[in-house]
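dumping the sequnces here before i forget
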Amino acid sequence: MTPRNQILLIPKIENGFVIDHITAGLGIQVMALIGRRPELEEAVVTLGLNYKSTRMGRKDMIKLQADLLPSRLMQMLALVSPGVTIKHIKNFEVIEKVVVQVPELFDNLARCINPNCITHAEPHVSTRFKRLESGSKYFKCAHCERVCTLTELVEHLKG
Amino acid sequence: MKKDLISIDDLTLEQIMEYLDLAARVESIPDAEKASLLPGKLLATLFFEPSTRTRLSFEAAMCRLGGRVIGFSEAANSSTSKGESFSDTIRTVEQYADLIAVRHPKEGTARLASEIASVPILNAGDGSNQHPTQTLLDLYTIRKFFGKVAGLKIALVGDLKYSRTIHSLCHALLMFDQVSIRLVSPDSLRLPSYLMKAAAGTTTTFEEVDSLEEAIAQSDLVYMTRIQKERFPDLVDYEKVKNVYCLDAAMLADVPEPFKVLHPLPRVNEISPDVDATPYAGYFEQARNGMIMRQALILDLLDARPEPRSTI
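..and the predicted 3d for all of it:
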């Protein structure tokens, strides 16, 4: 594939954000997160699925024509597809690039997987999950202490 | 900063040992002197699910320290039955009391209470999660009987799946050196795998054994638990396992000294009354130790620890 063809497949945007290196197959889930953000109601969004990637084999990509990327969306991206690259575009140029990783602790992004956790009965309470220890794939609910995986938490993301 | 006691996981081994030492100190204080330690202080016992023993133990502990107690013993007697949220109940009660002991059928309630209240919170049991005061009294009892906790061989018997007492105790035992834990339970009530995995990287070991007899022969103490009918969604499953382990005096005929049988109580059929008269029955003393440990915790959380007594 020539660079020229690439340009045809993935048109550049003048201003906005490119969410790149989304794990192949998760692009639609990320689109759903974007769709939930009222701040992005007017944004033009382009979804690309299953592009070839030298680093990942295959990847999904989203281009978002918006002035701001809500921080809550960035936090959720970190959970749904850790390692995504977010490029901030101005006048067709990348002015900032960040790689988003799963935080050690996150607030109020997901519901607890334990249906008997008090946070379900008191929905105004912010949930909190903390990684069990550095490098662990397990997270613990700060309230009921139930231990779960990131995948389980992603299935319980809040709005 | 105010102190709470929510989870054994919040404590270091050093803090646990300090609590055991404090309880020993409290136990040595004469009753008359103890009764003047907390005049004018008020404990609220908020029991959203019934538990006669734990509630009475907290209340006896506070009264014997010279304090007073308010509270309720089931959710039906609280404003929750009128639709009040748990958070609002805590915000209201903290206006009245100097500290709050809370038991609730949902996990995480004590932690939430500690985030809301400006007064200390004692977790008296949250769903199937934690029961830290029970764990501390268990450790205190074990240390009193054996002079140590590290290095002991301990059999845990019965409902290892739903029992928060067992879960909390396991978390604590993982902190001590070279504790060997034998697990005896029906297949449907085995210890959760995440607890078994937690032993990795510690010197504590878990081993599942087939029979109560085998566990007795290999252990210094047996910790019996009740098969909890209220935790079974299907009562047919409960009927299958309710009497699966029954310890009687004859089974203890050849145990080496010292040997102890502990139980958080109440018991149903899992310990025969003929064990009561043997020197191995430790469960009623364990109940008494519960009151002493809760006195120590109340004193600590209210920042009213008694000074070590002079030996001169």
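The longest strand of chain A covers residues 44-53.
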